[in-house]
Write a structure and sequence with these properties.
about 450 residues, mainly alpha, Na+/H+ antiporter like fold, two-stranded antiparallel ribbon, 19 helices, about 75% helix
Length: about 450
């Protein structure tokens, strides 16, 4: 496949124009960001946010278009263009430095990832998880355990001087699978209904749940360590038990009260009541997860998990039978690109001038791939293509970035748990696993018989 340079011109022109504009305005943008505005309104704090939103949404959509043209997910374009914006200092300019330091953008990006995990939960139901079968469950369990310890080992090998909790967190970033990337490729190939595809998609969903539990446990231990508590098996089991308990209790109670909740809400005559109710549940569960010492995204995912269409069908009829996913979509369009572009701006390309960091990133990617190949041994049914299942589990995508971003925001002894160099290695692993998966899936699944429509 050849890619013409013509589709890239709008992105290049936009980057040039926005860079010049931001460079000219950078003094006033810095003043606005630092002072919070003056009484006369000449340096309003909203000014840098508005320019950042224009920049992020424009370049995200243009770069996303380029990725779609070459058969890659849009999220990869958003991440790559963020890396470009964050490293223009290599060219002697740094017009978008205010984007990395703006607390409002940070908050918007955090809301974006909460809504993203809410959407993932909406596409998952408890009955679906119970129906995936033994193979999918075993593949998912192996797909979490093996990459976790492989990542832990790579971290200990390349950064032995770092805190052991960093090694643990590196292992956690390798656990989850991006179901969206694999599902899109399988759908395009017409293989979405093959047994191998069903195992991959079912395992990837369980993978996300288990990965979130691992993330919650590791994050809780880091917070405890910051407070002076030593890392031991007891504390690990306690935090993991809390995470699992929150998920189970929230799902059980949530599924019991949701029908009553929506029957009450259906009596209200306010506009947009279905969307408002859904967001209240999403943010409410995310808040409760935070109170329990877990990552808010665990609560958001749980909220999506318990919101099944059967609960709100009467209310949906007043909105043209719209699903919650459709109502939330405009918010995702606004907020999710902010998260991925900001994640990209945090990557410092100067770090990759160190050969040991490149070796770290390469080994991390290799372990990420090998770990998911081992999980294919969990396929119990004879006659299925285990290699196809393993390849479908490779991409880390947005989930790996979310884990890395959380690690960059956690501190231990006054320093980020995931420093700039390690963060860059994790991001490179995410990029590489995302890039290699579509062609590998196409190669292996094309050998399988087409699934019936």
């Amino acid at each position: 496949m050849t890619l013409s340079l013509r589709p890239m011109l709008p992105l290049l022109y936009s980057l040039f124009f926005l860079s010049v504009l931001a460079n000219q305005l950078s003094p006033s943008l810095s003043v606005a960001a630092e002072t919070g505005g003056d009484p006369g309104g000449h340096a309003s704090p909203v000014i840098p946010v508005l320019l950042a939103l224009v920049t992020i949404l424009l370049v995200a959509k243009l770069s996303g278009d380029l990725m779609v043209r070459v058969g890659q997910p849009e999220v990869l374009g958003e991440l790559l263009v963020g890396i470009v914006l964050g490293n223009l200092s290599l060219l002697g300019i740094d017009p978008f430095v205010f984007m990395r330091e703006n607390s409002v953008l940070e908050t918007l990006s955090e809301l974006g990832v909460v809504l993203l995990l809410f959407e993932v939960g909406l596409h998952t139901t408890v009955p679906d998880m119970l129906k995936v079968g033994g193979s999918a469950f075993l593949v998912a369990v192996l797909g979490v355990i093996v990459p976790f310890f492989l990542g832990w080992g790579v971290g200990a090998l390349f950064v032995p001087e770092a805190e052991r909790l960093l090694h643990v967190f590196i292992g956690a970033t390798l656990t989850a699978t991006s179901v969206g990337i694999t599902a899109r490729v399988l759908k395009d190939l017409g293989k979405i209904n093959t047994d191998e595809a069903k195992i991959v998609l079912g395992a990837a969903v369980i993978d996300d749940v288990l990965g979130l539990l691992v993330l919650a446990a590791v994050s809780g231990i880091i917070v405890a360590a910051q407070a002076g508590t030593e890392l031991d098996i007891g504390s690990l089991a306690g935090v993991l038990g809390l995470s699992l308990g929150f998920l189970l209790v929230a799902v059980i109670i949530g599924r019991m009260i949701m029908p009553f909740c929506f029957r009450f809400v259906a009596r209200l005559r306010s506009q947009g009541i279905l969307l408002a109710t859904s967001l209240i549940i999403c943010f409410g569960f995310a808040y409760l997860a935070g109170l329990a010492g877990l990552a808010p995204i665990v609560g958001a995912f749980t909220a999506g998990l318990i919101l099944e269409p059967v609960h709100y069908k009467d209310l949906a009829a007043r909105h043209g039978n719209a699903m919650i996913e459709e109502l939330v979509s405009p918010l995702l369009t606004l907020l999710v690109p902010i998260f991925f572009v900001i994640m990209g701006t945090r990557v410092n390309l100067r770090d990759f001038m160190q050969m040991n960091l490149l070796g770290f990133a390469f080994c991390l990617t290799l372990m990420a791939i090998i770990g998911k190949q081992v999980c294919s041994l969990g396929v119990l049914k004879k006659g299925l293509d285990r290699i196809a299942v393993g390849l479908g589990m490779i991409p880390r995508g947005e989930v790996g970035l979310i884990f890395a971003g959380i690690g960059a925001n956690l501190t231990l002894h006054g320093k980020p748990v995931v420093d700039s160099a390690t963060y860059g290695a994790v991001v490179l692993m995410v990029i590489l696993t995302t890039l290699v998966t579509p062609p590998l899936i196409k190669w292996r699944f094309s050998r399988l018989p087409s699934s019936p429509l």
